[in-house]
Write a structure and sequence with these properties.
Elements (H helix, E strand, L loop, with lengths): L24 E8 L3 H18 L11 H4 L1 E7 L11 E9 L2 E9 L8 H16 L4 E7 L3 H6 L2 E9 L2 E8 L14 E6 L3
Parallel strand pairs: 4-5
Antiparallel strand pairs: 1-2, 1-8, 2-3, 3-4, 5-7, 6-7
């Protein structure tokens, strides 16, 4: 999962997924992506973070998992029916009958640093899988994000290097993430933009 806090270097202008200004504090909806536009927004945000900011990938972070994964997004409620910018995203997928994975956690650089947006995405990701019969939820977490995940009830299973970066293989404590009754509606949360 991508880091939720850290470098604040701007992504190159061509990689910014949305340039519309939003208020300093905004009400968000964290939920399953609703249609192709939100999936495209999630992919654009991931490209800005993983290719533009972190240079983990050169041109694209897309892989075969994207074809089967569910995308979760954080979008402003104020956008109403218009195309809302995706301010955060994570994907989840099942690789065995009751084992799920979370990956590609990305939060817009202007909305990092408070932990609320990343934590909200993580909580809903695990709660969604838990509602679908998950017995084990895993993620490869960039090492600098290990403290956030540990605060949310995750345990570290191993340390490894992926894409030339230190990662932790981590497992969620499913008891801390009860099954979510309606991931398509998700959760409302308030987030504060970095200054």
């Amino acid at each position: 999962m991508a880091r939720e806090a850290g470098e604040n270097a701007p992504a190159p202008a061509c990689d910014r997924h949305d340039a519309r200004p939003l208020p300093v504090t905004v009400a968000l909806r964290v939920r399953l992506a609703n249609g192709p536009a939100e999936r495209a927004g999630a992919l654009a945000l991931r490209r800005a973070v993983f290719c533009g900011e972190q240079a983990v990938f050169t041109d694209s972070d897309r892989d075969a998992i994207d074809d089967e994964a569910d995308f979760l997004v954080a979008v402003p409620l104020s956008a109403g029916a218009t195309a809302a910018p995706v301010l955060g995203t994570v994907r989840i997928h099942r690789d065995a009958p009751r084992r799920w994975w979370g990956s590609r956690l990305a939060v817009d650089r202007l909305w990092r640093g408070h932990g609320r947006l990343g934590a909200g995405l993580i909580r809903l990701a695990v709660a969604t899988a838990n509602a679908r019969g998950c017995d084990e939820f895993l993620a490869h977490v960039q090492a600098q994000n290990e403290p956030l995940f540990r605060r949310l009830g995750w345990i570290t299973l191993a340390r490894e290097s992926l894409h030339g970066r230190a990662h932790c293989l981590m497992r969620a404590d499913l008891a801390a993430f009860p099954p979510h009754p309606d991931p398509a509606t998700g959760e409302r949360l308030l987030a504060r933009r970095a200054r």
